[in-house]
Every structure is written in structure tokens, then in C-alpha cells.
Write a structure and sequence with these properties.
By secondary structure, the protein is mostly beta strands. It has one domain (59-223): Porin (Beta Barrel), CATH 2.40.160. It is 11% helix and 47% strand. It is elongated.
Length: 224
């Protein structure tokens, strides 16, 4: 009677809630390990970033600001002064840019002995030139340029100091070295530059010093 009751109790145990034996637990762990080691195939590599868009070539507009100082006798009359530049050109071929440019130099005679009192004047120029750009990788470039044109002062301020042709249009010519940083947007580039110009109209009477002006500055370029 007791035996039959025990058998009846065992048969009533739910197989899903019964306690697993040691052998069953070990078999389950072995099966899980084999499942985790299953070959899932080759993992695909992350896609590479697309290359930057090609730099634009064509119509160019460039504006800049900097400073200019005199290396001749004019350094004793006019201080280093702000200079503004604007250029419009076209890249005929990849490294060659032909351009027209204009320059405005704002200065004064405050270094000169008084009298007369110090006066302000603007020295403007316009002309053209050529620029060769050598690209360094995808983001940078170095350029050399030469340009020439005509320049004059807006006032006869310098005439009294012996620069008798300063307020007349006279030839200038010079060269410039620049460094360009091409932006992510292929239309834009930033530049730093330095150069020297010979302004023939700033020659002083009874002086053999060449009327050289050294300048440097920053510029932003947009290519359509």
C-alpha cells in the first residue's frame, strides 16, 4: 500500500519543474559551449569613408587683408600699415591662375619730422599677374606668383618729403609666396602669403634706395 502511494506521488511530479541531475547539467553546459563556438562566417569590415570631393577649378575670387612696410627711406615717414587686396581670375589649367587684382594701402606721415603736421593718405594699385600652385596631398598647396600694374597716392602728401611722383600713376611689379589650405567644401581655400613689390612712384629724389615694400597677410578664396 505504501509502495503504491509513493509511486503515485512520483508520477505526479511535473517533468518541467523537477530538479536536474548532475549528468543532465553537464550535458546542457557542453551543448551551450558548442553552440557559442559555432562558425558565424567572416565579419564584414566597416565601409571606408568616401574620398573628399575634388577641388574646384575655374573662376576665382579672392579677398585678403594684411600689413605692408617700407624698406626704403619711406620707412622713416610712414609706419607699417594695413593693406587690403582683391583679385579675380581664372584657372586656365590646373596649376596656372591668371588674375586681375587691386590693392589699397592706408597709411600716414606720422613718423616724419614736423612741420608739417602728420597727414593720412591711401596708396592704391591695380594690375594683373599669374600664379602657379603646387598641390601637397589633398588639403594643402604652395603657390608662387608674379604681378605688375600701376599705383599712386590719393593725395600729394608725400611730395613735400621728396617723393615728387607719389601722387601720379607709376609702374609697380613684384612677387609673392603663398600657402593654401583647401577646405572640405571644394569651393573654398584659406591662404597665408608674403611678398615684395617695387613701387616706382615711391622713389625719392637724391636717393639710390629702391622703393621696396614688403607685405604679408591672410586671404580667403572662392572658386566657382
Amino acid at each position: 500500500m505504501y509502495a503504491s502511494s509513493a509511486l503515485g506521488a512520483d508520477s505526479s511530479i511535473d517533468p518541467e519543474t523537477r530538479q536536474m541531475t548532475r549528468e543532465e547539467i553537464e550535458a546542457w553546459l557542453d551543448a551551450s559551449a558548442v553552440e557559442s563556438e559555432r562558425d558565424v562566417g567572416v565579419v564584414e569590415a566597416m565601409p571606408e569613408a568616401p574620398p573628399p570631393p575634388p577641388r574646384r577649378h575655374g573662376l576665382v575670387v579672392e579677398g585678403g587683408i594684411g600689413a605692408a612696410g617700407h624698406l626704403s627711406t619711406l620707412k622713416n615717414i610712414s609706419p607699417t600699415s594695413p593693406e587690403f587686396n582683391l583679385a579675380v581670375g581664372y584657372e586656365v589649367i590646373d596649376p596656372l591662375l591668371l588674375f586681375l587684382d587691386a590693392t589699397l594701402l592706408m597709411s600716414s606721415t606720422r613718423y616724419a619730422k614736423q612741420p608739417p603736421d602728420a597727414r593720412t593718405y591711401a596708396y592704391y594699385g591695380f594690375g594683373g599677374g599669374a600664379r602657379f600652385t603646387f598641390e601637397i596631398g589633398e588639403s594643402f598647396g604652395v603657390y608662387l606668383q608674379g604681378n605688375a600694374g600701376m599705383a599712386a597716392a590719393t593725395e600729394d602728401v608725400l611730395v613735400v618729403y621728396g617723393y615728387t611722383e607719389a601722387d601720379q600713376l607709376n609702374l609697380y611689379y613684384g612677387g609673392q609666396l603663398g600657402f593654401e589650405w583647401f577646405q572640405v567644401n571644394p569651393h573654398y581655400a584659406l591662404a597665408a602669403h608674403a611678398g615684395v613689390k617695387n613701387y616706382m612712384g615711391l622713389e625719392r629724389e637724391a636717393s639710390n634706395e629702391p622703393p621696396l615694400v614688403v607685405s604679408g597677410g591672410l586671404a580667403i578664396k572662392y572658386t566657382f
